[in-house]
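If I may wish for something, please walk me through the protein I am sending here so I can picture the backbone:
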Amino acid sequence: MTTTKDFDGRELRNVLGRFYTGVTVVTSVARDGTACGVTANSFTSVSLEPPLVLWNQALTSQSHPVYCEADRFVINILAEDQVDVSQRFARPGEDKFNSIATSRGLGGVPVIDGCCAVLECRKVATHEGGDHAIFIGQVEHIISSDRSPLLFGDGKYMKALPLEPNGQR
């Protein structure tokens, strides 16, 4: 059995991958008006009153300065047919918004069309957490649909399947 004394970063990443999550693209706007977006599964609710959520990003991410300076961000919770959107925003470079249908949300931040849910947020705090920054936002507007979410775990994309109350499909 592995103990806390003898695991490496890759092994930790594999263990953390056992916690299946939804997939989001967090969008914002740079000071010069350029749209920015990044795939993140490090998203969670914090509080219902006030309505707060958080996500985190590596300090070394190319887009990190944009999110540090931005006053707003949007959490676009991807639907199960948006794997291509997730993959596009996970890669550095290129015009990620090219051929992606969006609308403008609060503060002009891009909202990706077709998501199962969207949370438009005003950033209220940023904290360092090791090699990541933790961004906390107050939710100011939500959009919800009946679309099924995209899931990720064990290094692969998945669909959510409902279970009966007894745990059976």
